[in-house]
Amino acid sequence: MARRRDVVAGLAALPLLSFSIAGNVPASAQEGALQGDVIATENGDITIHPVEHASLVIGFGGEIIYIDPVGGAALYEVLPAPTAILITHGHGDHFDVPTLEAIAGTAPILTNQDVFSKLPDALKGNASAIANGDQTSLNGLVIRAVAAHNVTDDRLQYHPVGIGNGYVISLGDKLVYVAGDTEPTDEMLDLRDIDIAFLPMNLPYTMTPDQAVEAINVFKPKIAYPYHYGDSDLSVLEKRIGPDTELRLRNWYPNGQG
């Protein structure tokens, strides 16, 4: 998965270290349309659609990938139906059976073993589990599971080793990393050639902004999105991430909660 690749013009042309705040889907959004950042690949555009907290939707060609969809069906009713669903782990802000029952349809679900064991039979038939470090294909997209867990001794209770997944998704010539709930694991720090990274940063459950800065400056994603950040002060990232990474701040809490 780690490999040298040329960055296509669409991404290379993006300004480094540009900071902006954007809202989520406007009330007037056309039904079935994704709203958000568009990033070019050699095989078509990626659309990044924040939903709330740790939930997001990624569009790529005909694929609509829901990641950790929670919060009830109403949050997703104006969006296109999922063609695939990724779930990082079993905490309630990442995994919610009623939401899945309302929106999943027949979309395949990829998750960890803990979540798989908790799925109702109607969803389990379209689901599969993947362990840290394993790789699979979902609708023709290559997906690798990356270890997601705490590393600080007094936080290991929140996300023990070997349970949660992050995911690296190959979309055209781009690699997208969704970290899940984690601090900087060895596996995260060993990542290379990541084009887009979604990184959580709120205490006591995930990284601090300082940890996120250190991780970003080690594995150097081309674009970094803070998500699952609660009330964390993200100005630390604005000041300290290196020139290899563009920071994109987006509003994951449209109602003001953090």
Automatic annotation (TrEMBL):
Extent of the signal sequence: 1-29
Gene3D superfamilies linked to this entry: Ribonuclease Z/Hydroxyacylglutathione hydrolase-like (3.60.15.10)
SUPFAM superfamilies: Metallo-hydrolase/oxidoreductase
This protein's record includes keyword Signal: yes
Highest taxon, organism lineage: Bacteria
InterPro entries: RibonucZ/Hydroxyglut_hydro, UPF0173_UPF0282_UlaG_hydrolase
Key words, A-Z: Signal
Protein name (Swiss-Prot/TrEMBL): L-ascorbate metabolism protein UlaG, beta-lactamase superfamily
UniProt organism field: Devosia psychrophila
